[in-house]
Amino acid sequence: MTTPGTTVCIDSFPLGPYETNCHLVWVESEHDDKAKTRPAWIIDAGFDPEPMLAKARELGLTPERILLTHAHVDHIAGLEEVRAAYPGVPVAIHPAEREWLASPELNLSAGFGVPITARDAEDTLEHGQRLDLAGSHWKVLHVPGHSPGSCVFYCEAADVAIVGDTLFNGSIGRTDFPTSDHEALIRGIREKLYALDGDTRCLPGHGAATTIDHERATNPFVRA
Questions:
Q1: First to last CA, the chain
Q2: pTM of whole model > 0.70?
Q3: Domains of the chain in sequence order
C-alpha cells in the first residue's frame, strides 16, 4: 500500500557501457514540505553513477538505502562512488551474493580486465521481506537463475516491479554464467513474477520497461 495522497516516483538511468538501468526511487506527497528531508532509495549502482547522483541532489533527496538486485559488475561498479556521496547509507544484497562484492571473479569484473571490488554490504535481503519507503510498502522477491541472489523489488500499490536482470522486454536474463541456473530462472519467473498483477510495470536492468501481461503473452522464453 501507499499513504493516501502520495505517489511513488522512479527515475531510471542507463549507466555505463552496458547501459545498466539504475533507479532512484522516492515518494511525492501533496503535503510535501520541501524544506524537510525527502527519503529515497538507490537501486543498483552501475558504472559512472554521477547522473543519478546529480538528480538526487537536484530533487533534494536523501537516500536511506542502497539496494542491489544482484552483484554482477555492471550493477555494482559505481557502488563505492555512491557510498562516498552518501556516507553511512546501508547497502543491502541477498546473502547468496554478499561475498561477490569483494571478488572480481564472482562479480565478473575480472573477465573484463578491470577488477572491481566493493566493501561488504551492511544488510541482507530475504524473499518475502517488507521494505518501507515514506509510506510505500515494497516486497522483496528472490528470483534466482541469472545469478543465485537475484532479487526483485515489488510495490503492489504502485503496480511496479524493479526486476533487475531476471526478466526483460521480450527476453530473460542470461543463464550462461558459471553460477547461473536456467531452469531456476524459468521457474521463478513463472511462479513469482507471472503471479503478479498483469498491469504491473516491470523495470529491467537493461532496455525498455514492460508489463507482466505483455510478457505472459509474448515472451518467447517463458509463456504463461
A1: 26
A2: yes
A3: 6-218 (3.60.15.10)
> CA of 27: how far to CAs of 30, 109, 157, 170, in Å?
10, 34, 12, 29
Tell me: the pLDDT tens digits for 46-95? Answer: 999 999 999 999 999 999 999 999 999 999 999 999 999 999 999 999 99
Query: Nearest 10 degrees: CA dihedral of 41, 45, 51, 53?
Result: 40
Residue position matching grid coordinates 499513504: 3
Residue bearing cell 526478466 = 167
- 154-199 tens-digit pLDDT: 999 999 999 999 999 999 999 999 999 999 999 999 999 999 999 9
Alpha-carbon span 133 to 27, nearest angstrom: 7
- CA dist list (Å): 119 to 46, 53, 77, 80, 159: 15, 19, 12, 8, 33
Which pLDDT tens digit goes with each residue over 17-54? 999 999 999 999 876 666 577 999 999 999 999 999 99
Q: Do β-strands 160-164 and 201-204 pair in parallel, antiparallel, or remain unpaired?
A: parallel
- 90/160 Cα distance (integer angstroms): 23
Residues in Cβ contact with 122 at an 8 Å cutoff, skipping those fewer than 6 apart: 90, 91, 92
CA distances from 200 to 1, 25, 67, 166, 184 (A): 14, 16, 20, 15, 22
Residue whose entry in the numeric block shows the C-alpha cell 551474493: 97
